[in-house]
Write a structure and sequence with these properties.
The chain is α+β, with helices and mostly antiparallel strands. It folds into 3 domains: about 5-115, no CATH class; about 120-240, Jelly Rolls, CATH 2.60.120.1440; about 250-325, Phage tail protein beta-alpha-beta fold (3-Layer(bab) Sandwich). It has helices at about 10-25, 30-45, 45-55, 60-65, 75-85, 90-115, 265-270, 300-310; strands at about 120, 130, 135-140, 145-150, 155-165, 180-185, 190-200, 205-220, 225, 230-235, 240, 255-265, 280, 290-295, 310-320, 320-325. Strands 1, 2, 3, 4, 5, 6, 7, 8, 9, 10 and 11 form an 11-stranded mixed β-sheet that branches. Mean pLDDT is about 80; it is low at about 1-5 and about 60-110.
C-alpha cells in the first residue's frame, strides 16, 4: 500500500503513525506502548491504512539507513534528489517518515533508556527545576538526565545526558559540616566551590560555564580553576578556555536563547534540541549571522520570526520536518 496513492489519508494521521512506529521500533517499548498502538490503529480505518503504508516501505527504509550510516538522520543528499525529481508531497512525507524512524532508533531509544533509569530527567522541549535536600537548586534543560548521590562526606551529581544549571546550597543539615559538591560527566570531575554554574554534556566534550564563584576541573593529567564569567570545553585528557560565546550559556534557564552574531546553522541546531522531529538549515544560509533573544517555548514562532527578519523561509513538510532555506 502506498501513501502517495491514498490522498484521503490526512497528514496528521501519517504523523501519528510515524510517531507510533518511532516508539515501537526504539527497542524499549513495553507492553503498554504496544497495546496503545494497537488501540490507535483500531480507532479508525485511516489509522490502519497509514500504519500499513509505513510498515510496507522496507526498501526505502533500507536505502535511507545506508545513506545515513545506519545511525539516525535523513541524508541531505537524499532529500535534495527527491526534491529535484519533484516527488509528490505524500511520497516525500512517506520517505521522511521512514527516516524519522531510523533516527529514533539511534538517538531516541538510547536517550530514553538513560532517562528512565535516572533520578531526575526531562523530555524533549521540557525544562525542570528541582530543590535538593541540601538547598541546591538544580535545573535541567531539554532532554536531560541526572543521578543525585549524596553521602555523609560529599554531594555528587552525575550528568547522564543533556544540560544542567546548579546553584549550590548551604548544606545546613550535614552533621559533618558543609560537604564537598561534585558533578561528574563522561569527560571530567567538576568540583563546585560555593557557586552557580552550567554544565552541558555533548557527544565528546563537556561544556562548563561559571556564573558565580569558581569551579575546579579535575582531569587525569590536568587541573584547572575556572572563575566567574569563564567558559571551558573539556575533553577526556585536557581542557581549554573558550572565547565569549555566540550564545548565552545560561539563558535557557529563563526559557530563552540569546544569540550574538550566531551562524544560522548553529542557531537552528540549537533550536532543534527543543522540539521533536527534524529541523535543519540549507548550506546556502548556514553562514548568515543572527543576533537576538528568542523564546524557547514556541520554536515555530522563532522560525517565523527568522523568516520575517532574515532572507530565509521555512520549508514545512509536516510538523516533524522543517528546513530553513534561502528566501
Amino acid at each position: 500500500m502506498n501513501t502517495a496513492a491514498r490522498p484521503d489519508v490526512p497528514e496528521e494521521v501519517l504523523d501519528q503513525a510515524i510517531l507510533w512506529m518511532v516508539r515501537l521500533q526504539s527497542g524499549y517499548a513495553d507492553e503498554q506502548a504496544m497495546q496503545g498502538c494497537l488501540k490507535w490503529r483500531q480507532l479508525h480505518p485511516l489509522h490502519e491504512t497509514a500504519w500499513q503504508a509505513l510498515q510496507r516501505n522496507e526498501s526505502t527504509f533500507s536505502t535511507l539507513a545506508t545513506l545515513s550510516g545506519g545511525h539516525g538522520g535523513v541524508g541531505r543528499d537524499t532529500l535534495d534528489r527527491m526534491q529535484h525529481r519533484q516527488l509528490g508531497r505524500r511520497q516525500l512525507l512517506q520517505v521522511l517518515g521512514t527516516g524519522l524512524v531510523i533516527g529514533a532508533m539511534g538517538w531516541q531509544g538510547q536517550n530514553q533508556v538513560r532517562r528512565w533509569g535516572a533520578d531526575y530527567s526531562t523530555r524533549v522541549g521540557e525544562r525542570r527545576t528541582v530543590m535538593l535536600a541540601d538547598g541546591t537548586r538544580l535545573q535541567l534543560n531539554t532532554n536531560s538526565a541526572v543521578d543525585v548521590l549524596f553521602s555523609d562526606s560529599q554531594r555528587l551529581i552525575k550528568l547522564l545526558q543533556g544540560e544542567i544549571f546548579i546553584d549550590t546550597g548551604p548544606d545546613p543539615d550535614s552533621p559533618a559540616g558543609r560537604r564537598s559538591f561534585w558533578v561528574h560527566t563522561a569527560q571530567a570531575r567538576l568540583e563546585a566551590l560555593g557557586t552557580a554554574f552550567a554544565v552541558r554534556q555533548d557527544d565528546s566534550t563537556t561544556q562548563l560555564m561559571v556564573e558565580h564563584s569558581k569551579v575546579a576541573i579535575h582531569l587525569p593529567t590536568q587541573q584547572q580553576l575556572v572563575a566567574a564569567g569563564e567558559q571551558y570545553s573539556i575533553g577526556p585528557q585536557s581542557c581549554h578556555k573558550l572565547p565569549l560565546g555566540e550564545m548565552d550559556a545560561s539563558a535557557w534557564t529563563r526559557g530563552q536563547l540569546v544569540a550574538r552574531s550566531m551562524p544560522m546553522q548553529a542557531l537552528v541546531a540549537e533550536l532543534a534540541r527543543y522540539q521533536r522531529g527534524w529541523l535543519a538549515c540549507a548550506p546556502e544560509v548556514a553562514g548568515l549571522k543572527v543576533s537576538g533573544v528568542f523564546q524557547l517555548k514556541d520554536i515555530d514562532r522563532v522560525l517565523d520570526a527568522l523568516a520575517d527578519s532574515m532572507p530565509v523561509r521555512v520549508e514545512r513538510i509536516t510538523r516533524f520536518w522543517r528546513r530553513v532555506v534561502a528566501a
